[in-house]
Write a structure and sequence with these properties.
It is built from two helices and eight strands. By secondary structure, the chain is an alpha+beta fold. The chain has two domains: 70 residues, no CATH class; 101 residues, Immunoglobulins (Immunoglobulin-like, Sandwich). Strands 1-3-6-5 form a four-stranded antiparallel beta sheet, with no helix packed on it. A hairpin with a 5-residue loop joins β7 and β8. α1 packs antiparallel against α2. The longest helix has 24 residues. The protein is flat, with a radius of gyration of 24 Å. It starts with a helix and ends with a strand.
């Protein structure tokens, strides 16, 4: 695994060095030869380690092109799906001071015919931390997503809106609730 990381990093470094060399010298006509040279060096490194390398796709013409983003959560649940209904999807804390701890419980109900299984709940930043039930919520039953919001000094004097994304066996798999606050100095 470490060899793969080294090879990937070496490839990125080679591409960046090559790009800088071409852009600094202003020689754009040698781009094809440079690309071939870089690819040959990558193949030599790969062959030397005897392990296949995973190199992020990067364009020699535009090395700032990021690799494709792989989804981190499923967009379609596996198994039977159900429905969830939140009493409200937005809570406004109003004025809150920096470094205060602010709590709110978003109440929901399983309105479908299958048990509701929440696999994850994630805040849009580290200042927003959700807790969710780990056990199945049976049809007709209710539960809560408890959210703790702790504004930081960088948010002082701002109106803030944060999102909590809940992933469950619903269609769509992700449901979002939001919190708002106006952050003041202590």
């Amino acid at each position: 695994m470490m060899d793969k990381i080294k090879i990937g990093l070496l490839g990125v470094i080679l591409v960046l060095v090559a790009y800088n060399t071409v852009s600094l010298s202003g020689v754009n006509k040698n781009m094809d030869a440079l690309e071939t040279n870089v690819m040959t060096k990558l193949e030599n490194v790969k062959a030397a380690t005897q392990t296949p390398a995973v190199v992020a796709p990067t364009s020699i013409a535009n090395p700032a092109t990021p690799p494709p983003v792989m989804p981190t959560t499923q967009t379609k649940p596996v198994g039977p799906t159900t429905n969830v209904k939140f009493d409200e999807d937005l809570h406004d804390f109003g004025a809150v001071s920096v470094d205060s701890e602010n709590y709110y419980a978003f109440t929901f109900k399983n309105t479908g015919s299958e048990p509701l299984l929440i696999s994850n709940a994630k805040g849009s930043c580290g200042c927003t931390v959700p807790k969710w039930p780990k056990e199945a919520i049976q049809p007709g039953e209710s539960g809560t997503i408890d959210v703790k919001y702790t504004p930081n000094k960088g948010q002082a004097g701002q109106k803030i809106e944060k999102v909590v994304t809940i992933t469950a066996n619903t269609l769509p798999a992700n449901t979002m609730v939001r919190i708002k606050a106006e952050v003041t100095e202590k």
